[in-house]
Each structure stands twice: as C-alpha cells, then as structure tokens.
Specification:
194 residues, 2 helices, mainly beta, six-stranded antiparallel beta sheet, 13 strands, globular, Jelly Rolls
Length: 194
C-alpha cells in the first residue's frame, strides 16, 4: 500500500499523493476557517475529496475494508464542502468507493459509494463493506438494489478501474471535507479487498 500508488483525484490538495507513513499513508485535512462555510465547491475552498488507487481486481463476492486513524490537535471541527444542492445536513464523513474502468465522471453507474460511512473524529476504526448491491449507492443516489442499477453494478464489479475513500457529508459523500480550528491528520493503516 505505497503512498505513491494513491492519488488525490478531486479536491484542492496541493500534493498529488498522500505522504508515506508506517504503516500506510497519511495526509493533513485542509483548514478552512470561514464560519459559516460558504459554497466550497464553487469557490474552490481547500478540501479533500477522493483518495484513490488503480486496480483491476474482480470485486465480485468480495468485501472492501479500511483500517484508519484520525489524530487531532486542538479542537478541530470537521466540515464537509457545502454547496447549495447539499441540503441533507449531518456530519462530515468518509465512505468507501469503487469506480468503473474508463469512467469519465458522468456515468450514473460508474461510481459507487458505500452506504455506511464513518463520521470524521479523533480516533481509530475500521470500515468493512461487502460488495453487495444493498450496501452501495450510485453517484446519483440510485440504490444498488434498484432494478435499473443491476447492470451497472455488475459492470463495475467486473471492470474496476479504481477503489478508495471519499470525503464529504450531507447528501454528497464525495464533495470534500476540511476542518476549522486545530489540525487533523488522516492515517490509512490498511486498505484491502478480500
């Protein structure tokens, strides 16, 4: 799990890859001290969105898992990138992610997020999600069990381009997260498909 095999693929991170750590890799959450937060997506506020690694493994019947740690100093507040379309409320989160090979960012069934997520906070934890359609949602909010999603779900499992973790909150799991007040580091200890 070399840091150089992982990339920040959306957001405004200044480096192309996380920093090597032992074990795994890490990054510092960007700081955004505007309160209340403004429309981050339109203004380009600092945020981390997707952290991904390429893979071509067939994910049928597998489980994606990550073991992580969040270390804070001070009392940071985790924020997700607000946007006028994000009206659901809630905490800043991290979710698991899979993407179809060759995805250009516009196919409804080319990117999938785990329905279960972790709320960003100080501490260590795991997130382990079976690659079963009832546990995943498409980029446009279609449940994996929806009859119209079945073909897209099967295609992404057998034609994977990348996997990883996304940060966001509210209705938008992937639009990014940042902090205000203090500092916070995300450490990816382990990430695997098994």
């Amino acid at each position: 799990m070399a840091a150089s095999d992982w990339s920040f693929t959306t957001g405004t991170m200044l480096l192309p890859h996380p920093t090597a750590a032992s074990p795994g890799w890490s990054f510092d959450f960007p700081i955004y001290d505007h309160v209340p937060p403004t429309d981050c997506v339109a203004s380009g506020c600092p945020r981390v969105g997707y952290v991904t690694t390429p893979t071509s493994i067939n994910l049928t019947g597998k489980t994606l898992s990550m073991e992580f740690q969040v270390d804070v100093t001070g009392e940071p507040v985790f924020q997700y990138a607000p946007n006028p379309d994000n009206t659901c409320g809630g905490a800043a989160t991290a979710s698991l992610f899979i993407q179809r090979l060759g995805n250009t960012g516009h196919g409804e069934f080319d990117r999938w997020f785990s329905k279960s997520s972790i709320i960003l906070a100080n501490g260590t934890g795991t997130l382990s999600i079976e690659l079963s359609p009832d546990k995943w949602i498409s980029v446009y909010g279609r449940d994996g069990n929806d009859a119209t999603a079945a073909s897209g779900w099967q295609t992404v499992l057998t034609n994977v381009g990348s996997v990883g973790v996304v940060f966001g909150g509210g209705c938008l799991a992937d639009h990014g997260a940042n902090i205000t007040g203090g500092t916070a580091t995300f450490l990816m200890i382990q990430f695997e498909a098994h």
